[in-house]
Amino acid sequence: MSHPVPRHPDGALRTERIALVDLLDRVLAGGVVISGEIRLSIADEDLVQISLQALVASVRTGLGELGD
Amino acid sequence: MTEHSAVWGYAVTAHHSPGRLAGLTGVAGQPARLVTGAGLAAAVSTVSLAEFGEQPLRQRLEDLAWLEATARAHHQVIEALPGPVIPLRLATIYRDDSKVAGLLAERQAGFAAALDQLTARAEWGVKLFAAGRTADPAPADQPGAGPGASYLRRRRHQLSALDRARREDAALAQELHAALRAIAAAAQLRPAQAAELTGEDGHAMLLNATYLVDDAAAARFAAAVRELGQRHGTRTELTGPWPPYSFALPGAGA
After folding, report:
1. Distance CA B59, CA A64 (A)
2. Please, which residues have CB within 8 angstroms of residue B72's CB and are 6 or more apart in sequence?
3. Nearest to B118 by CA among B93, B81, B90, B148
4. Are B107 and B37 spatial neighbours (Cβ–Cβ below 8 Å)?
């Protein structure tokens, strides 16, 4: 898919890869919550916690594998 | 729609012709498409219940690789939508298109008002990190003072230097946030991210905030971030423009 033309030519520091932690913070804790028919019923706080714990664990593992 | 599928929602926008999303791929590699109603449109994908029903979804959300791929695909669709958008939270799933159309009709006024507030605006994330500090030189020992007294004196000096540094850090974060808040239409303070997540060991995150900024003020906003960082010798990080995840709800952010 071709990358859409940025709507904001003044946009300063676009990074090629958005940092996952910044993205997860927004898509998990932001956005409108509208109950759907199958809206995930665990509390939204749980959603964020589960994901952030997984992220931290993954980063720690990654750092360990890099060695010194 | 079958009994084995459901509808994943990305965002609500003003009405567009359905063809606008041609070629755009979303979660689970599914094409994104529009459901229209009440002068609005919802960007959606059809997904399987085998993967996106409540039970499998719970499990997959704990799988970081799946979560990352899904979050990026969700974001990619939202970013590609032209004009103001109201992003839906990740994992907002509906039974079928008619439920989605019904939602647009039911919430038309609120959505239209939110889209109006988000027009020609974008979200920008700002982080501020503490400067690396060299330790203040230890105080000279008093002649004739015993080792215990010398130790206590050095320790008091250390603690007061730390206290002073913390107060300076707080003042810096306050200064940056106040300057940016004055330029932005809305702001939200987020918790500082742990050093493990950012790889910024040794440089505490003093501010993690997100702002809704008029497009016309974006350059001035970026300049304000840079200027404070340069003036105080501290590192700042600006991300954006983001779709307005943090400001999608009316009144979200102060």
Report:
1. 25
2. A18, A23
3. B81
4. no
Residue type, B250: P
Task: Report which residue type is found at B47.
Answer: V
pLDDT at A14: 36
| Mean pLDDT per 10-residue interval, chain A, length 68 residues | 37 52 88 66 50 56 44
- Chain B interface includes A17 (CB < 8 A): no
Which helix (H) or strand (E) element contains residue A29? helix A20-29
A-chain CB neighbours of B54 within 8 Å are 38, 40-41
Residue B195's closest chain A neighbor by CA? A56
Using the predicted structure, report yes or no on whether residue B190 has a pLDDT greater than 70: yes
Q: What is the chain B residue with the closest CA to A26? A: B245
The CA distance from B196 to B219, in Å, is 31
pLDDT of residue B129: 92
Structure tokens at B39: 């002068």
End-to-end CA distance of chain B: 41
Angle between helices B218-232 and B147-183 (to 10 degrees): 160
Give the whole-angstrom CA distance, residue B81 versus residue B70: 17
Provide the token pair at A5: 């033309």
CB-based contacts of B196, cutoff 8 Å, min separation 6: A56, A59, A60, A63
pLDDT tens by residue, B95-130: 889 989 999 999 999 999 999 999 999 999 999 998
Measured between alpha carbons, how far is B119 from B128 in angstroms, rounded to an integer?
28
Residue ranges of alpha helices (H) inside chain B are 49-52, 54-61, 64-80, 97-106, 108-118, 147-183, 195-198, 218-232
ipTM: 0.85
What pLDDT, on the 0 to 100 scale, is given for residue A6?
39
> Whole-angstrom Cα distance, residue B227 to residue B233?
10
